[in-house]
Amino acid sequence: MPAARPRSTARRLLAAAAAVPLLIGALGACGYGSKAPTTGNKVAAKGPKTDGLDAVKVGYFGNVTHATPMVDRQKGFIQKELGGTQVKPYIFNAGPSEIEALNAGTIDIGWIGPSPAINGYVQSHGKNLKIIGGSASGGVSLVVNPKKIKSEKDLKGKRIATPQLGNTQDVALLNYLHEKGYQVDPDTGKGEVGVLRQDNKEIPNTFRQGGVDGAWVPEPTASKLVAEGGRTLLDEKQLWKDGKFVITNIVVRQQFLKEHPKAVEAVLRGSVQTNDWIKGHPGEAAQAVNASLADPKVSGTPLSDKVLNSAFRNVEVTDDPLAATLKDEARHAVTSGLLKKPDLHGIYDLRLLNKVLKAEGRPPVGAAGLGAQ
Length: 373
Prior knowledge:
Blueprint (H helix, E strand, L loop, with lengths): L7 H11 L5 H7 L24 E7 L5 H9 L1 H6 L3 E7 L2 H10 L4 E4 L1 H10 L5 E10 L1 E5 L14 E4 L5 H12 L14 E4 L5 H6 L5 E5 L2 H7 L3 E5 L10 E8 H6 L1 H20 L1 H13 L10 H9 L1 E3 L5 H13 L15 H9 L14
Helix pairs in contact: 1-5, 1-6, 3-11, 3-12, 5-6, 7-14, 9-13, 11-12, 11-15
Protein name: Aliphatic sulfonate ABC transporter substrate-binding protein
InterPro entries: ABC_SsuA_sub-bd (IPR010067), NrtA/CpmA_ABC-bd_dom (IPR044527)
Subcellular location: Cell inner membrane; Periplasm
């Protein structure tokens, strides 16, 4: 592989996403970019504690691609499995901050995208996290201003937003632009196509004001942009075999997995039950996500029915982590210039998930050669 140009900014960000902070007490108080630990789960802790734990600290995003924990916030399948051990949720805005919290022990288990999971695993030399299950596939689109961009050939000279430098959508956009022959500096986002990194919640306003010409974003941001007059130029599903690719995984701190396997198994049982319920009750599940979004501790802003239904339709919940697609996403990070070739051997530990699936009479899922021995 030819020597790449300096990537100090990206490397610092990726390292920060996985480094264990020294000021754990001070940083823990502000929740690592989250809205701090939240309450609001509709089902209360009740019964014997699992593994003697008072709580399991769980991180996730307040968006539709994290439908499993967002629905469970209302339905409480995970809480029921944990009994008297409380689910203590933390809401994050982006993957790197969630990985930072996981590394510091502020959270124990998290729903998170593949790129932050890869970065966290690589930067900790495989010693901090494991991917223990899947959660969602799809739900990502490139939405553009149709007056300025009619096709991919019109991207030159335009400005496209992603949620954060080095996050899953940022990597996907950079890889796509690379494959189409556009030159873009991965650190600065400057090049033949400009890339603006901005928080998901800010992108619709920037798009509305003309600050960007499009955005590569997850749901519900993609559907919000369409509601603002944008057009879906590309649904990322079109780029993947069978239209499936991992957008959300479940990760755990390795120490927590080692010390509290019963609690981890309980969370996985609850996650599998939640996904089954979502598949059987899609309309109610969409409303459950909206109820969670309406919670001031999550975002305080529910979605319109039009945006909600569009967003929910574009996301598929799954227990399968779709490990082969994670391999490809790691390759995309290398191609885009944000990551050196990573060693992902052992990033998955699917033994507890497969135990849960076996008890349900379902076949096991695979780790594409990247599983724990």
